[in-house]
């Protein structure tokens, strides 16, 4: 009886082939997963700026004053007492209260270098929609109190519907007046921007109506602030009513405004921002405790000379 000895050379070739095949299979299967994981880690660790979106501010000692009496407005109104806790935390912990132009110049277009005075601070934006009177009656006293306590000016962004502003001849306890805007601006607290003329869903308007909503809001806000600010400093940015926008709205908004803000309950990761007309904001309502808002704020990143 005869037998063949194993061909070591052939076995070695076969083993080498199998090893190459396994390596190729590993690359095919796991490299894309690895790349996705790396991109995900980069994304979640990207520099972030919380933009908090408030509406009316209700004094819990006088809860029926200044807010429209409907369930949605009531739910969106945030307690003044809770807001003060949040603002005090931010003032005490070295936050930088951004204006819309700060955000655009330093983080979106990156056309300006961040001044050294802001190094080490954490950027945040506080915005208030819908022109409610309580942003004047209930917020200004809190801002003045904290300024005296911490020697820091807290800037807030007002996205205003000029079509709802109270007239001098018809004062309102519900909506801001032009005089309220001018006073808050003169005190250094308000950054005044557009929320459309009459708070209409821009995605549902014909082109002519859309253009009027965008253009009239800008014109009237700038008229209101005549003599206090350069025209370009007012209503240069817009927050879409209801957070509703589409490609048509964006195209026409770009004719009048430098950037646009959404309501999508997402934190802004500015290095990943692909469209300056889709800036993310975090929705605030009375269900969110001060501790929850502070937690949102802590997700900001400290400014350094490396951006």
Our estimate of the beta-strand percent is 5-15%
Helix and strand sequence: HEEEHEHEHEHHEHEHEHEEEH
Total count of domains = 2
Helix/sheet category? alpha/beta
CATH topology of the largest domain: TIM Barrel
Quickly count the helices: 10
Question: Can you summarize this structure?
Answer:
It contains 10 helices and 12 strands.
What would you say this structure looks like, in words?
The protein is 40% helix and 13% strand. Helix 9 (247-253) links the parallel strand 9 (237-239) and strand 10. The protein starts with 7 loop residues before the first helix and ends in a 10-residue tail after the last helix. The chain has two domains: 7-45; 49-297, Alpha-Beta Barrel (TIM Barrel), CATH 3.20.20. The chain is an alpha/beta fold and 307 residues long. Residues 38-43 have low confidence and may be disordered.
Keywords:
single chain; 307 residues; alpha/beta; TIM Barrel; six-stranded parallel beta sheet; two-stranded antiparallel ribbon; 13% strand
Topology summary:
Blueprint: H1 8-44, E1 48-49, E2 51-54, E3 57-58, H2 71-76, E4 78-79, H3 80-92, E5 95-97, H4 100-108, E6 122-129, H5 134-137, H6 140-150, E7 156-160, H7 178-186, E8 190-194, H8 207-224, E9 237-239, H9 247-253, E10 259-261, E11 268-269, E12 282-283, H10 290-297
Parallel strand pairs: 2-6, 2-12, 3-4, 5-6, 6-7, 7-8, 9-10
Antiparallel strand pairs: 1-11
């Amino acid at each position: 009886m005869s037998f063949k000895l194993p061909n070591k050379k052939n076995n070695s070739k076969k083993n080498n082939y199998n090893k190459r095949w396994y390596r190729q299979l590993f690359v095919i299967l796991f490299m894309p997963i690895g790349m996705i994981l790396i991109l995900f880690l980069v994304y979640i660790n990207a520099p972030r700026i919380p933009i908090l979106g408030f509406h009316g501010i209700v004094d819990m000692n006088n809860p029926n004053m200044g807010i429209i009496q409907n369930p949605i407005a009531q739910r969106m109104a945030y307690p003044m007492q809770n807001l003060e806790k949040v603002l005090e935390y931010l003032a005490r912990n070295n936050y930088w209260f951004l204006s819309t132009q700060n955000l655009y110049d330093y983080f979106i277009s990156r056309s300006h270098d961040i001044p050294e005075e802001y190094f080490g601070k954490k950027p945040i934006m506080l915005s208030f929609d819908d022109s409610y009177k309580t942003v004047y009656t209930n917020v200004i006293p809190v801002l003045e109190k904290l300024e005296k306590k911490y020697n820091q000016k807290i800037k807030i962004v007002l996205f205003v519907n000029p079509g709802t502003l109270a007239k001098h001849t018809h004062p309102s306890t519900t909506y801001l007046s032009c005089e309220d805007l001018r006073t808050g601006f003169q005190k250094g607290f308000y950054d005044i921007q557009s929320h459309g003329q009459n708070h209409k869903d821009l995605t549902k308007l014909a082109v002519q109506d859309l253009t009027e909503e965008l253009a009239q809001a800008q014109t009237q806000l700038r008229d209101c602030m005549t003599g206090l600010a350069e025209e370009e400093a007012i209503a240069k940015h817009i927050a879409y009513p209801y957070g509703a926008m589409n490609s048509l709205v964006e195209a026409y908004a770009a004719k009048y405004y430098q950037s646009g803000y959404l309501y999508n309950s997402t934190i802004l990761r500015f290095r990943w921002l692909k469209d300056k007309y889709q800036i993310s904001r975090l929705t605030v309502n009375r269900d969110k405790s001060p501790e929850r808002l502070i937690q949102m704020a802590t997700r900001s990143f400290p400014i350094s000379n490396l951006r």
